Amino acid sequence: MSSTLNADAALAERDGLPPDARRLAMISVAIGVGMASLDTAIANTALPAIAEQLNTTPAASVWIVNVYQLAMVATLLPFAALGEVVGYRRVCIFGIGLFTLASLACALAWSLPSLVVARLFQGIGGAAMMGVNTALLRAIYPSHLQGRGFGFNSLVVAVGFAVGPTMASLILATASWPWLFAINVPLGVVAVLLARRALPVTSRAAHKIDAMTAILNVFAFGLLILTFGDAAHQEGWHKLLPEVIATVIFFALLLRRQSGHAAPMLPVDLFKRPLFTLSALTAVCTFAAQGLAFVSLPFYFEVTLGRSPIETGFLMTPWAALVAVMAPIAGRLSDRYSPGALGGIGLALLSSGLVAMLMLPANPSALDIGWRMAWCGVGFGFFQAPNLKAIMGSAPKERAGGASGIVATARLIGQATGAALVAYCFTLSATRGTSYALVLAAAFAGVASVASFSRIVVGARQA
Predict the structure, then answer these.
(1) In angstroms, what CA-CA distances link 177 with 61, 103, 242, 312?
(2) What keywords is this UniProt entry annotated with (predicted)?
(3) Overall average pLDDT of the 356-375 stretch
(4) For the whole model, what pTM was predicted?
(5) What does the alpha-carbon distance between residue 300 and residue 291 come to, in Å, rounded to a whole number?
(6) Closest of 235, 192, 240 to residue 90, by C-alpha
(7) Cα(135)–Cα(160) distance, integer angstroms
(8) Could you say which of 147, 173, 174, 379 would form a disulfide bridge with 350 (CB–CB 3.0 to 4.6 Å)?
(9) Distance from CA of residue 170 to its chain's centroid?
(10) What is the CA radius of gyration of the chain?
(11) Dihedral sign, CA of 55, 60, 66, 71?
C-alpha cells in the first residue's frame, strides 16, 4: 500500500508527462472538452426540429438548452474543488463517462421531460470535465510548454462553440435530431479508455469537501443562470425580482459558510491576487463579447439578409477557422512573451473587427462578411491561450482546481451575459437589435483589452 502511495506521489511531482503519454492524454481531454463545448451550442440550432418531433411548444423546448447550462454552471466549482481532494484524473474520467451515458439517454429520449432530464445529467458530466481540464493541462505539460497546451485547449473550446450551429445544420439536413447526441457515444467511449490509460495522477489536498457549501454553490449559481435566462426571455419583474433576491441571499450564505476555509469552493482567496482578478475579468468580458456576436449575428444573416441556416453556419465559420489557426500560435508565444500584452493586442483586434461588422454595406457579399469574421477570429484566438496561462500561473499549484473552475465559470457566465443582453437589444429595436448588440460586444472587447494590458503594469509592480 505504501509503495503505491509513494509511486503516486512521485508521479504527481513530475513536471509534465513524457511526449507519447502527453499526446494520448491530450486526445482524451480534447474529446471530452470538445463534446461539452459543442453541446453547449449545438442544441440551439436543433430546438425547432426537436420541438416539432416531440410535439411540444418552442417556449417549453428552451429548457433543453437552459437545463444544460444551468447544470454546468451550478456544479463547476464543486467538481473543481472535488478534483483538488480526490484527484483531477478521477473527476475527469467520471465526467466523460457520465456525459457519454447521458448523451445516449438524450438520443433515446421519447418525450420532452425525458430529454430534459438527460440533458441535466449531460450538463453535470460536462461540468466535471470542464471544471478540472485546465488543472489537468498543468499536470500534462511541463512548465516550459504549458502555453502550448493552453493554446490547444483554447482551440478545442472555441472551435467547438463556434462550429456547433454549422454541424447541427448539416446533421439535421441528413438525419433526425437524436443523431446530434448519438455521435458523442463512440467518441466518449474512446475518451474514457484513453483517460484511464494516460491521464496523470496529481497530488491531493488535505482538506475535505463541505457538502453544505457545495449545495449553497449549486443554488447560488443555478439561480444566477436561471435569472439570466428569464431576463433573456423577457420575463416580468414579478418573476425576476424574487430570483435576483434569492440569488443574492444564496451567494451571501455561500460566502459566510466558506469564510475562513483554507481552500474555499468559490475561490475568493484567489481574487486577492490582482493578476488573477484581472485575468478573470478579461475572460468574462471577452466571452460576453463573443456571446453577443454569436447570438445576434444569425438573426442578421437569416432575417435581414435572407440567408438559410446552413449558409449562416458557413458565414460564422471564418471566426472559428482563424481561432483554430491563431490559438496554437498564441499559446507558443505565451511561453516567451507577456500574456497581458498578447491578450491586449488580440482583444483590440477583436474590438476593431466587431466595429468593422457594424460598418457592413447594405447588401454585403460573403467576402464582405467573411474577412470581418476572420479578423474577429484572429483577435479572439490570440487572447485565449495567454489568458489561460495568466489565470493558472497566478494561482498556487495546490489551488489549480479552484483556478480551473473559475476559467470555465468565467466563460459560461460571460456567454450567458452576452445572450441575455442580445435579448434586451432586440426589445429596444427588432430591426437594429443586432447593431446594438455589436456595439456592446465591441465595448466589452475594449474593456477586456484594457484589463489585459493593465496586467503588464501589475506584473511589473509585483516583480
Answers:
(1) 13, 12, 36, 19
(2) Membrane, Transmembrane, Transmembrane helix
(3) 91
(4) 0.80
(5) 15
(6) 192
(7) 20
(8) 379
(9) 23
(10) 21
(11) negative
